[in-house]
Design brief:
single chain, about 425 residues, 16 helices, mainly alpha, Hypothetical protein af1432
């Protein structure tokens, strides 16, 4: 199967992160084994915490793998300056990086045995971010940590962890840029929107572990591991509910296909292409999710029509009938009481971009995208014929005076051109 340019770029970016993380981990391991192991009980405590954190990984929004407990343990490991009765910590950055790398891979073994291999990118990001944090703190600030006031030390830790978490989000944005060919700004905003809450929870827990470990030693790890595990299981439950929700929507979207009202795969094609166009136009993740759902269910109104549309191609139906299908579909969606934005996108999908009278309200961007993409797929279908694609795009270009938003048509053209090149 031929991969698209975005898939190739994503694979190359993930490979680069993986090679970088592996090089950092191996180099730190070589350095660490050449030095005497200092404070093995302290190192072992954080090692075990990271292993456990990896064993209970969770999948976040967007199918992103994460190990919040392991990540918080890695942060605390890099920042711990004193450990209860053991006194000031004396091990260096190489020990932290090597210990985190080995513990991370040991924690992955149960997932690999179960056939649930975590994403290479998330594991690589952990190693890289931990290395950056350990190198930033331990050589320069560790000798001075005991002489800082509580406020100064806390402020230092917060600054370092904010830097580390922003680095982690930036690395995630690099993968998004490669996959979706988007700009750095929208990609970073999407990372913050999707993982910002977890990043705050992980970062703050790591800082608290490091600070309280100075007095409580191993008890600090136990005290803060519990609440973070509860948060992690809550995210896992939320992710499970969300996946079930998405599967329900996809099943609902196939009702018109099962009834023979639309072509097989039409809803999925429109949804995938609409989201790609939305990314091209730099929509945020929340609106992209609503756009995905609306595109999947844009033809639901056909179920309520007394007669079927020829081949399910609504673009060939009169405007009044298109708007009736959109209205009926929006009514069905509004029955859920939780998809108001989706219903709004569906309801306005048949409205022209510009009114000939010049007094109509401009439809939402999501509706304009669905209108153009649906019209395109109604003409092209699942064919890969380049002539049919060009003919469909020409028809859209002819309608940009009133029917279609020229920005949407231009974005669609760019997405299709990249797909053809890939």
């Amino acid at each position: 199967m031929t991969r698209t340019r975005g898939e190739v770029d994503e694979a190359n970016s993930v490979l680069f992160l993986g090679v970088t993380a592996a090089a950092i981990g191996l180099l730190s391991l070589v350095v660490a084994v050449q030095q005497p192991l200092r404070q093995p009980n302290v190192v072992s405590a954080f090692f075990v915490l990271i292993v456990i954190g990896e064993c209970v990984r969770v999948t976040l929004q967007g199918d992103v793998d994460a190990a919040p407990l392991g990540a918080a343990g890695s942060i605390a490991f890099a920042l711990v300056y004193r450990y209860g009765h053991d006194g000031p910590t004396t091990f260096g950055a190489a020990t932290v990086i090597a210990g985190t790398t080995v513990a991370t891979f040991i924690g992955l073994v149960p997932h690999l045995v179960a056939g649930r291999a975590p994403a290479i990118s998330s594991v690589s990001r952990r190693v890289i971010v931990t290395a950056a944090l350990a190198i930033a703190f331990r050589p320069a600030f560790l000798p001075k940590a005991g002489h800082l006031t509580a406020k100064e030390l806390t402020a230092l830790f917060v600054v370092l962890v904010v830097f580390a978490q922003l680095l982690d989000l930036a690395l995630g944005a690099v993968i998004d840029i490669a996959r979706n060919r988007s700009a750095i700004g929208p990609a970073l905003r999407n990372q913050i929107h999707g993982q910002g809450s977890m990043a705050v929870a992980v970062g703050s827990t790591g800082v608290l572990m490091a600070l309280t470990a100075a007095r409580l030693g191993p008890w600090a790890l136990l005290i803060f591991a519990g609440p973070l595990l509860l948060v992690q299981f809550a995210f896992r439950r939320y992710s499970f509910i969300k996946r079930t929700y998405q599967q329900t929507i996809r099943s609902l979207s196939r009702m018109t296909e099962v009834a023979g009202l639309t072509e097989t795969g039409h809803a999925s094609r429109v949804s995938d292409l609409a989201v790609a166009v939305g990314r091209e136009l730099r929509m945020n993740e929340q609106d992209l999710e609503a756009l995905e759902y609306a595109a999947l269910m844009h033809d639901l109104g056909q179920l309520s029509l007394p007669h079927s549309v020829y081949n399910g191609a609504t673009v060939l139906a009169p405007l009044a009938e298109q708007q009736e299908i959109a209205r009926l579909g929006a009514e069905i969606i509004r029955q859920t009481a939780v998809l108001d934005t989706v219903a709004t996108f569906v309801e306005a999908q048949a409205n022209p971009y510009r009114s000939r009278a010049g007094d109509a309200v401009e439809p939402p961007l999501g509706s304009r995208i669905i209108k153009a993409v649906n019209a395109y797929d109604d003409v092209v279908g699942d064919t890969r014929d380049s002539v049919a694609r060009l003919r469909a795009l020409e028809q859209l270009q002819m309608g940009i005076a009133y029917d279609y938003d020229p920005r949407v048509v231009d974005a669609l053209d760019k997405v299709l051109s990249r797909s053809a090149q890939g």
